[in-house]
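fold-stage: in
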Amino acid sequence: MSKTTSVDFAKALADETRQKIMRLCCCEWLSVNDIVAKMNVAQPTVSHHLAILREAGLVSVREEGRQTFYTLNQDKVVDCCGQLMSAFAPEQKATRQFIKITDIKN
């Protein structure tokens, strides 16, 4: 999915397990096995949730041999948060400041 909508983002965030995976992958690359070990959750469960996050564009993927590593796509998270702020709080000062800052970076 190239453009994640605010609905896609909200659906991806709607599950506590996916939120935990996002926090774990926030600032480092982790393999599925790393995530399984840190969460004490079955591998198929982790893979299922990673697939949803991947489809929403919320994780970046790196292949190394037979292993796949994941990290949080922080740029996508910022973009999606901005979409939500613009849609539901367009008059807020924080929203205007956020949009101004992200427009400068882009």
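fold-stage: in (second)
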Amino acid sequence: MSERHILARLQLSGEKFEIIVNPDFALNYKLGKINDIDKVLVAYEIYTDVRKGLKASSEKLMKYFKTTDVRKIADAIIKQGELQITAEQRRKLIEEKRKQIIAFITKNCIDPRTNLPIPALRVEQAMDQVKVSIDPFKEAEGQALKVIDALKPILPLKIERVKLEVKVKPEYVPRMYNFIKSYGYLEKEEWLNDGSWKADVDMPAGLQAEFLDKLNRFTKGTAQVRILK
């Protein structure tokens, strides 16, 4: 496959679906920078194997995507699946994500021996030493927490934390429960008489702003939050 055309691939229950896309437009689409799927698609076909020229049947598309609309299926494949980006794209994305991770650590961590922030250069050198692996598509904040754990044996650091009391209406609980757990530890949770769910969540202080923004959007501004410490 030429670097002018790359594949986007999604596996669903062992079944593979592929599309041929423009590398630059596809990457920007996956990152949410553009929303015109027509700029992304090189061919308006859904394949089970591009290299063999095998196209997905309408029956299979209906079974797994509930539609045969190529644009809708392509949207799902790009957003949920794997994008075979070029080597240069990957290098740039990883470098950008690396800088974001370092910025998160220097902003949210201190040296417990001095209670002073840790210089970015020290963080960068420690990351090189432990050979941290960075995913170009995963959020920097979540990866930073794993990087912090990897750095602790060679770089003394402590992350500042915050505790929030969160109350969510019944209709949003099924979706919000795992979302909230993904941001921190549930120290206490309870179901209220009106069906609402309340929990005390301990999380890194650097994730608080992002967490509150998403919580507000997902619950249409109905979630109640109180800072406990």
